[in-house]
Amino acid sequence: MNKKGQALIEFIIILPIFIMMMLAVFDCVRIYSEKSKLEGIIEDVILDDTTYSDVNVTKNRVSKGTEYVVSKDIEIYSPVVSVVTGNKYNVTVKRIVYE
Prior knowledge:
By secondary structure, the chain is an alpha+beta fold. It has 2 helices and 3 strands.
């Protein structure tokens, strides 16, 4: 029996699945990384009232203080994740500063 041919066929079948899984992991890591960056940006916005060009910053008055919202759209590369989230995923961080 020819085991090399069988191994090649198995590799060809598994390779696209492995690539899609790796892209899904890559996208999830990017989303987590962007959320972590936005956590730092929201602190700067609250303390220094800093403006950023690549993120959306909104400031709203609420009943007992001010709500700060920082968000950014991330393009999704993985076909597996884009089925769930769409082609873009909005990462949002909210904080309420009570006065």
